[in-house]
């Protein structure tokens, strides 16, 4: 069995808010979440907006807003992911492919953005190689983000995340706004990375993409992990799905039964 | 491009006409009579002499005629003669402009460099002590009238501590040509400090806001997720994204700078363009007043023009749009 790269246990994320005067209250973002991603595996996390998917990514990367309160444990390759350990591993062993193309610096040529974090002596060469891998022309390196199309920017974001030393890639909604072909390309790139032994955590609300690319699909709702299903069960009427919420989610899709759901299960 | 230049020149011309008409109307309707202001308390003047003076200055003609006569000679490059100094307006302004320029130059540089650094420091330590100190300073100084701050500085540094002279650009009773550089500098410090203190506050406040936006942006969040340190984030993204608006602001700041210098110079009796403007207004010296108004309008216009050009030249989103 392959080595677990990322192990999340009993993760909780709460937000401290002021509720009038000096009284504070805590709003729950994520509660009691357990998750494991193994070497060479794509694990998809699906759920509606507000289900806590992005918070999960931010908690792993340590980029939550300042008023967030994190409990539980996150382990990377067996060791606790502390602030000090993040400093050593982020950008080297752990990569992040963000949700939006506004994550690129608008005033820096994209080539330079890809070279950040690379060894300065070989950075240019390495960046050319990455551009070639993601089908970007050499001249593109000198362009600014506003001069590139949405699809090209996605590929640039991929190029920023691929490093020889990377063991875990967290991709947060890498597909919205792309046409079908571009989506297929993004998914193919994720599969490629997994084939190289990287653990991929794909966060998405697109069930079809998740089922197409992942081995396992984790379903989140209201800050909790509802179930982890095998991706192959997302087919037909979804009778192979273990949890009723996953079945409802699958059957609610227009191309399936388009049903309202909620009849066979109760919280 | 030539069309753009032409458009700018046209805008400048209409601006100068508008400003001069407005200033002229205001002076005409001010309670100060130029002739009375000119002769002052001299009682040995006859009514006949007064009338002749009015006629010689053209005050007996209609306001429109007066304005057109002034504008007509102006177009030929003649700004007229100052009634207070009895010298060509251009010469009077030329002698004062240098002093004002030094004052504004120092304040401009100080506020640009120091204001930017303080603003950046505050944004990067938002909510902590450094931020609170800078914010407190900025809000307090921005809410402080320049002339009042000047008076406070005079009271503290000149009267109580005795470190600096109370006013003027050199020691009293010493001919301007005999004033040494050290003496000039000694007289220069307080007005420059007054003007700079207010400027630093404004620039620091704006930079803090801009830098906070940058630090809260998606691209900085991404940079953090890529393991960039705070220093790297500033070097790679913070400086790049905040220096363009800061530079634009810095040039657009010319207007406030000139307004501030009028007040600071008046408080310190510092013989620059600003204090001369006040003098000209109180002394009913219409040609000198209009001359300074035009020069200052040109000065502010130039600042805004440079701001536009710098902005277009440094921001790739504007530069490469062509």
Number of helices of chain A: 8
User: Average pLDDT across residues of chain B?
Assistant: 86
Kindly state the percentage of residues in helix of chain A: 25-40%
- Reading the helices and strands of chain B in chain order gives HHHHHHHHHHHHHH
Q: Which strand order do you get reading across the main beta sheet of chain A?
A: 6-7-8-3-9-10
Percent of residues of chain A in beta strands? 25-35%
Give the overall form of chain A. Answer: globular
Total beta strands of chain B: 0
Q: From the alpha carbons, calculate the radius of gyration of chain B and give it in angstroms.
A: 24 Å
* Structure class of chain B: mainly alpha
Q: Low-confidence segments of chain B, ≥5 residues, pLDDT <50?
A: none
Report the uncertain regions of chain A. none
State the distance separating the first and last CA atoms of chain B: 11 Å
Largest interface: A-B, 26 and 22 residues
Helix content of chain B: over 70%
Radius of gyration computed on alpha carbons of chain A: 19 Å
Q: pLDDT average of chain A, as an integer? A: 87
Give a short account of the largest sheet of chain A: 6 strands, mixed
* Count of DSSP strands of chain A: 10
Assembly state of the chains shown: heterodimer
Number of helices of chain B: 14
Describe this structure as you would to a colleague.
The complex is a heterodimer of chains A (267) and B (322). With 267 residues, chain A is an alpha/beta fold. Chain A is 28% helix and 28% strand. Chain A has 8 helices and 10 strands. Chain B has 322 residues and is an all-alpha fold. Helix content of chain B is 76%, strand content 0%. Chain B has helices at residues 2-28, 34-39, 47-57, 63-75, 89-124, 129-142, 146-160, 181-215, 218-225, 230-252, 254-267, 273-282, 286-314, 316-319. In chain B, helix 5 (89-124) crosses helix 11 (254-267), helix 11 packs across helix 12 (273-282) and helix 12 packs antiparallel against helix 13 (286-314). The longest helix of chain B has 36 residues, at 89-124. The mean pLDDT of chain B is 86. Chains A and B meet through helix 2 of A and helix 9 and helix 10 of B.
């Amino acid at each position: 069995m392959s080595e677990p790269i990322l192990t999340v246990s009993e993760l909780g994320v709460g937000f401290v808010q002021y509720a009038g005067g000096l009284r504070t209250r805590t709003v729950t973002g994520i509660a009691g979440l357990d998750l494991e991603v193994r070497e060479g595996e794509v694990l998809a996390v699906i759920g509606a907006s507000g289900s806590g998917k992005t918070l999960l990514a931010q908690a792993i990367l340590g980029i939550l807003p300042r008023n967030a309160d994190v409990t539980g444990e996150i382990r990377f390759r067996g060791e606790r992911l502390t602030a000090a350990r993040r400093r050593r591993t982020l950008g080297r062993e752990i990569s992040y492919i963000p949700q939006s193309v506004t994550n690129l610096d608008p005033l820096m040529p994209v080539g330079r953005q890809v070279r950040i974090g690379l060894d300065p002596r070989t950075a240019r060469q390495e960046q050319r190689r990455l551009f070639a891998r993601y089908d970007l022309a050499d001249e593109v390196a000198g362009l600014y983000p506003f001069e590139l199309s949405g699809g090209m920017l996605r590929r640039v974001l991929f190029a920023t995340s691929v490093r020889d030393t990377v063991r875990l890639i967290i991709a947060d909604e890498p597909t919205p706004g792309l046409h079908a072909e571009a989506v297929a390309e993004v998914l193919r790139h994720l599969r490629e990375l997994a084939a190289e032994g990287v653990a991929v955590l794909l966060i998405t609300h697109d069930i079809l993409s998740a089922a197409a690319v992942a081995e396992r699909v984790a379903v989140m709702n209201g800050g909790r992990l509802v179930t982890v299903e095998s991706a192959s069960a997302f087919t037909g009427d979804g009778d192979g799905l273990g949890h009723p919420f996953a079945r409802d989610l699958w059957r609610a899709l227009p191309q399936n039964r388009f049903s309202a759901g909620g009849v066979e299960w109760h919280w | 491009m030539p069309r753009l230049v032409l458009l700018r020149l046209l805008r400048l011309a209409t601006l100068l006409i508008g400003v001069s008409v407005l200033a002229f109307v205001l002076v005409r309707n001010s309670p100060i009579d130029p002739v009375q202001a000119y002769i002052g308390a001299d009682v040995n003047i006859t009514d006949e002499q007064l009338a002749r003076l009015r006629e010689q200055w053209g005050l007996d003609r209609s306001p429109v005629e007066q304005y057109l006569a002034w504008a007509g000679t102006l177009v030929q490059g003649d700004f007229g003669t100052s009634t207070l100094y009895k010298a060509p307006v251009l010469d009077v302004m030329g002698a004062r402009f240098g002093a004002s320029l030094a004052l504004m130059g120092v304040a401009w540089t100080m506020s640009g460099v120091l204001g930017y650094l303080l603003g950046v420091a505050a944004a990067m330590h938002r909510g902590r002590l450094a931020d609170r100190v800078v914010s407190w300073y900025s809000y307090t100084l921005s809410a402080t009238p320049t002339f009042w701050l000047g008076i406070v500085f005079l009271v503290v540094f000149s009267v109580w501590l005795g470190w600096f002279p109370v006013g003027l650009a050199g020691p009293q009773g010493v001919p301007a040509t005999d004033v040494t550089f050290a003496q000039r500098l000694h007289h220069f410090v307080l007005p420059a400090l007054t003007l700079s203190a207010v400027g630093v506050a404004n620039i620091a406040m704006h930079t803090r806001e801009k830098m906070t936006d940058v630090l809260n942006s998606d691209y900085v969040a991404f940079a953090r997720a890529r393991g960039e340190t705070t220093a790297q984030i500033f070097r790679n993204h913070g400086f790049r994204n905040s220096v363009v608006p800061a530079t634009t602001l810095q040039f657009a700041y010319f207007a406030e700078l000139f307004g501030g210098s009028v007040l600071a110079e008046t408080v310190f009796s510092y013989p620059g363009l600003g204090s001369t403007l006040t003098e000209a207004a109180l002394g009913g010296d219409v040609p000198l007043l209009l001359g300074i108004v035009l020069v200052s309008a040109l000065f502010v216009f130039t600042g805004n023009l440079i701001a536009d050009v710098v902005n277009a030249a440094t921001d790739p989103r504007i530069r490469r749009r062509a």
